[in-house]
Amino acid sequence: MAPLQFQPLSSQPTPSFWSALNSLKLDKLKLDDSEQPMEAWLEESREIHDREKGGTIGVSGSVGLGSGAFGQESGERPPAGSVELKGVFKNYNTIEEFKATETKKEIFNSVADSILASFETNAPQLDTFLLVTFADLKKYIYHYWFAFPAVVSKPAWEIEEGGLVAAEDQLVAEARKLADDLSNRSGALLVRGPAGQRTAAPVKDATAFFEGVPSSERIVAFHDPSHLPDAPGWPVRNVLFYLASKHGLSDVTILCLRSGSSSRIGRVSLPGPLSAEKPTFVGWERNKIGKLGSRVADLGPMMDPARLADQAVDLNLKLMRWRIMPSLQLEKVAATKCLLLGAGTLGCYVARALMGWGIRNITFVDSAKVSYSNPVRQPLFDFEDCLDGGKPKAQCAADRLKKIFPGVNAQAHAFTIPMPGHPVPSTGTEATKADVAKLESLIAEHDAVFLLMDSRESRWLPTVIGASLGKIIINAALGYDSYLVMRHGAGPDQQDGGKRLGCYYCNDIVAPADSLSDRTLDQMCTVTRPGIAPIASASAVELLVSLVQHPLGINAPAETASSAEQEPSKGSPLGLVPHQLRGQLSQWKTLLIEGAAYDRCTGCSKIVVDAYRKDGIDMLLKVFNDLEYLEKLTGLDELHRESEKAMEGIEWEEGSDEEDF
Amino acid sequence: MAPLQFQPLSSQPTPSFWSALNSLKLDKLKLDDSEQPMEAWLEESREIHDREKGGTIGVSGSVGLGSGAFGQESGERPPAGSVELKGVFKNYNTIEEFKATETKKEIFNSVADSILASFETNAPQLDTFLLVTFADLKKYIYHYWFAFPAVVSKPAWEIEEGGLVAAEDQLVAEARKLADDLSNRSGALLVRGPAGQRTAAPVKDATAFFEGVPSSERIVAFHDPSHLPDAPGWPVRNVLFYLASKHGLSDVTILCLRSGSSSRIGRVSLPGPLSAEKPTFVGWERNKIGKLGSRVADLGPMMDPARLADQAVDLNLKLMRWRIMPSLQLEKVAATKCLLLGAGTLGCYVARALMGWGIRNITFVDSAKVSYSNPVRQPLFDFEDCLDGGKPKAQCAADRLKKIFPGVNAQAHAFTIPMPGHPVPSTGTEATKADVAKLESLIAEHDAVFLLMDSRESRWLPTVIGASLGKIIINAALGYDSYLVMRHGAGPDQQDGGKRLGCYYCNDIVAPADSLSDRTLDQMCTVTRPGIAPIASASAVELLVSLVQHPLGINAPAETASSAEQEPSKGSPLGLVPHQLRGQLSQWKTLLIEGAAYDRCTGCSKIVVDAYRKDGIDMLLKVFNDLEYLEKLTGLDELHRESEKAMEGIEWEEGSDEEDF
C-alpha cells in the first residue's frame, strides 16, 4: 500500500473569456463585487504525438474558462466529452483587495463550506471551483487566481500495491457508454456488475447502488484530467471523501477515464473512522513559477488597437453609469447622428465633446479652408493643414476625428449654405438648388443639427428645414466675451401642445439679411476671448445630451432651477434642460433664459414653415433674392408700419434735461 | 515745337512695406481709417547691361515703398541718391469701401487741393503722392492703388524742336553737386550762371533767383525717374506748373538728371495765360494690364509659413484690442511662462486655451503614457499615440503643440511628483530628491503653475513650492458634473498686507494623504461628463489671464460682482478676478467663492512654508514618509484632540425623534 496522490488542476482561460469578463464588469457588475455563479469545463487528459522521440506523450486536461462562463450567449462551446463544472466567481474592485490574503482565504473557506454543506443534500457539489480576479480594464491586464477546493483526507488514503494499472478496453468502453447514458455530464459515476452487463448510478446514490456489492466490485469511474500513470486527477478527491464520509465506503476501485487507450484503474482504501473535526481544504492553483500565487493575463499587446480604443472610449462613459447615474441611457446618446454646420472654432470643439460622449456619427459642412490663424483656436487643425492654401476645413476636421478615434463615422461636405439677402445670380440658380437639396437631405439623415457658423443669416435655412422636419437644433454663437447656446423649439408641429419654445430668430423683428459684405477685419474674424469657444461648445453638447436624455426629448419644456425642483423625476437625469444659456465671461455668469416662439418669426413660425413646405426651393429663392419677402410673408412689414405710425404723434423734445435720453 | 509728354510713375512696394503696414494697422490704426502721413523714395532711372543685345538699356526709377514708410524704425534705407517723397496714406477697413469709386475720387481731390493750397505757402508740396489700401490681414493679400497727382496743363506745354538731347557731362556734374549742397533731397532745384560758376536755389525762390536771368539760361534740374529719351518723368509736371503759375515763368530749360551718362536737357515753353479755373489733376497708377485700376499683392505664397502662423495667431488677439479692449496688455499675457502639472484632460485643454491667448512658453510634467481612452477626451492626443504601450504624455503633448503652432516653446518632463503619505523607500530617496529638485527649478523658471493632476495629494508639493516662491498657482479639479477652478493666494509673503486668500488645502483640517491606492476603476479614471473638462480648463486659463491683467497681479483681492462695480477701473480689463469658481453643470451654475488663508493650512501657511524654506528636502521627506508630521507641524493634531475633548461631555441620544439627525 502507498499513499494516494493526485495531480493538481490547472486553469486555461481563453482570450474570449476575458472579453466576457469585461462585459460582465462594465455592463452588469459595475462596482458589485459579490460572488457570482460561473461555469467552466474540464477536459480529460490527452495523448499527443511526440515529434522528437516518436510515440505518444500524455498531456493533462485543464479547466477551461470560455466566453460562456457567465451565462452569456456565446459561440464558444466546451470541447466534446468535457465535463461541465460549476464555480464561484469574485471580481475585486481594487488590486489591493485582490492581493490581500485574508479576503481570499475567506472566500475559499466559504466555497469549501458550501461543498461540505451540499453533502447533506441530494445534490452534492463535488466539482465546484473558485476564480478570483482583478481586472484592470484600462490596460487589459487581468490578475486572477483559480482554485479547486479539495478535502485533505486524514488519515491519508492509500492505493493497493502496484498502483494504478491500465484499464481493460472493454470496461472503459462500457463505463463511457454508461456515463453518456447517465447524461449528466458530471465528473464521476458509480459502476457495478459483471462485464458486458454493467450498470451505473450517480454518486449520490452510492449507499443503495452498492448495497450487497462486494467492495472489490464497486467502481467509481470519472473523467480524469491527469496524465500521470500513478496519480488520478484532483477532482476525484471530493468524490472519494463524499463516498467515504456520507456513504461509509472504506474501499473502492477507481477507474480513471483518459483519452485513447491510456485509462487507468486501481483499488484504493479510504481508511476511517474519519475525524470528527471539520476537514481542511486545499486547492489554489500554482502560478507559472510553481509558487502559490496569482497569475496575470496581459491582453493589451494581442488586442486589435482599433478595438482597444473602441472599448476604452466606452469605458469612461460606462463608468459614469456605475456609481453616479444608473439611469443614463448611453446608447441613446451614442446613436444620435450629429450634423455640424461650421467646422471652425465652435465646430471643432463641439465635435471633440461629442466624441467624448461616445457619439459615432458626425458630419461637417464648411466651405472654407484652414488658414494660419485657425490651429491655435480650432482644435482639429494643425499647422501643416494651412500650407499650400489650406486644406478644406470640413474634410480636414473629419479626417482628424478618424485619427483621434478610428471607429468614428465622420463625413464632410464643402458647400456654402444659401442665405437670405444674398441674391443668387441667374447663372447660380442650379448650384444653389443643389446646395439646398444637399442640406435638406443631410438634415433629414441626422438627428441633431448644430448651428456653428459665423454669421447670423447662414443659420436661417437650416432653422427652417429643421423646424419643418422636427429635428433637434442646437445653436451656438460667440460674442467677444459672451456666448449664446440654445436649442430651438420643436417647430410648428410640436407634439405635446405645451408652450412652444422659440428659435434663434424669434426675438427679431427684422428678417435676416446680408451682414457679411462690408465687414471690417475684426468683424470678419470672430474676435472673442479664447476661452469662450470651448465653454460654449461644451455647453452646447451637454445641452444636446441632456435633451436626448429627457423623456420628452425635443418637446421638453424650458427648465429652470425651480421647475426642476418640483418634479425632478420627470426630467433629464443629467439635470436641467434649459432653453437658452447666455454666458458672460467677465462676470463668470450664465443666465438661463426662456423665449417663447413668435408667430411672426422669420425662422420657425407656421407661416414660414408652411410656405417652405408648399413651395420648397421656389420659396427659398424668393427669400435669398428678395430682401423684403420674408417680412411681407410674416407680416413684420406691417408691424413696422404700425409702429412708425404710432410714433407719428409724438414730438421729440430736444435739449431735454434727461442726459441719458 | 511738340507737345511735352511725361513718363508716368510706377510704385514699387517691398515685401517689408506690407509688413510695416500690418504693424501699423494692427498696433496703431486698428479701425482708424483716417488719412495718415507716409514717406517713400523716388529713384532716378538707371542703365543696365542688356545681356541679349549687348549695350545698355534704360530702366525707369520707381516710387519705392519700404519698411520705414510709416516712420517706424527700420533697417531698410532708401537707395543712395534717391529723392524723399511725402505722401498721404489711407487704409480702408472693408474691401467694399476700397473698391468704391467715390471714396477714392474724394481723397485724390483732397490731396490735389492740398498741393494747390501749398503753392500759396513758402513750402510748396510738389512731390506729394497718395496710397490707398485694403489689407486682408488674414490672408496676407493687399489691395492697393498708388497715385501721384499732377496738374493737367491747359494749354499743353511744348518742347522745342529736337526735343530732349543729351546733357553735357560738366553741367550734369555741376548740377548734381549743387543739388547735394542744397541738401534738401527734394526732387528739383533751380540752376543759373555760366559753366563752372553755376549757383542753385530751391524752386520756391524762382522769382528772385531768376530775376534778370535770360530765359534761355534758366535751368530747372531734377532727379528724373524716366528713362525715355524724349519724355521727362512725371514729377516735374507739378514743378513746371508751380513755376509757371506762381513765378510767371513762360519757358525754362529742364535738366533731367539720370544715372550714368544718360541725363537729358531741353527747352520747354509753358504757354500762358493759365486758365483761371481750378486745374484738373491726373495720376492714378495703371495696373499690370495697363488699365486704371488697383493692384493686388498676395504675400501669402512667398511668406515663411511658420512666420505666417506666428502673425496669424497674433492677429486674432490684436483684433480684441481694436474695438473692444484697448487697455489689454497682450504682451504681458504672451510673456507669461506656464508650467502645466498634468497632461491629461485638463492639461490638454488648458494648453490649447493658453495657445489661443498667444502664450508661447508651455511646459508639461506628467509621468503617464497615452492610453486608448485618452484621445477622445484629451485634445492633444491621437489614436496612434496609444500604440505600442503609448507615448509618454508630456512629450507627446509638447510635440503636438509644436505641430499646432511651430513658434511655441513647448517642453516636457516625465516624472512623478512626490506626495504626502506616499512613503519613499530608502532605495528611492535619491530619485525623490532629484524629482523635488526638478520640480523646484521648473516652478522657479515659470511665472504660473497649473495644478491639473488627478489626485488631491499630488498638488501639495507644488502648492508649497509655489507659496514659497510667490508664483501664481491656478488649480483645477473635476467632479462628475462639477468643477473647481481657483487661484491660490499669494502665500505668506503677500505684498499688499490685505486679506490673504487661501490655497487648495486651506479648508482642510486633515493633511493630504494617500488616496491613490485602493481605488476602484471609476476612481482611477476621472469619471466626469465630457463637457466639464473644456469648461473648467477654459475658465482656468481665463482666470490666469484676468489675473495677469489685474494691476495687483497675484495680490489682487477676490472680486465679486458688487466689488467690481465699486471700482471698475482698479481691476482687470477682462472683468472680475474671483478667487474660486465652483461650477455645477446640472444646474448650469457657477458660484464665485472667496476663501481666506488658514493659519494652520498644510499647504500655504507660514508655518509650513517656513519649515520648507529652512529644511528643504529633509522637511519634505518627513512629509512624504510620516503621515502625522504635517498635522503635528501645523497644530492640526492638537485641534483634533481639542474637538474630541469637547465632544466627551456630550451624550448622544439614540432613537431620537429627529430622523434627519
Automatic annotation (TrEMBL), chains A, B:
CDD domains: Apg7 (cd01486). Pfam families: ATG7_N, ThiF. The keyword Cytoplasm applies. Keywords: Autophagy, Cytoplasm, Protein transport, Transport, Ubl conjugation pathway. The active site is at C525. Its main location: cytoplasm. GO terms for molecular function: Atg12 activating enzyme activity; Atg8 activating enzyme activity. The keyword Protein transport applies. It is found in: Cytoplasm; Preautophagosomal structure. GO terms for cellular component: phagophore assembly site. Coiled coil: none annotated. GO terms for biological process: autophagosome assembly; autophagy of mitochondrion; cellular response to nitrogen starvation; piecemeal microautophagy of the nucleus; protein modification by small protein conjugation; protein transport. Residues 4-303 form the Ubiquitin-like modifier-activating enzyme Atg7 N-terminal domain. Residues 320-551 form the THIF-type NAD/FAD binding fold domain. E1-like activating enzyme involved in the 2 ubiquitin-like systems required for cytoplasm to vacuole transport (Cvt) and autophagy. Activates ATG12 for its conjugation with ATG5 and ATG8 for its conjugation with phosphatidylethanolamine. Both systems are needed for the ATG8 association to Cvt vesicles and autophagosomes membranes. Autophagy is essential for maintenance of amino acid levels and protein synthesis under nitrogen starvation. Belongs to the ATG7 family. NCBIfam families: E1_like_apg7. Homodimer. This is Ubiquitin-like modifier-activating enzyme ATG7. It comes from Naematelia encephala. The lineage of its organism: Eukaryota, Fungi, Dikarya, Basidiomycota, Agaricomycotina.
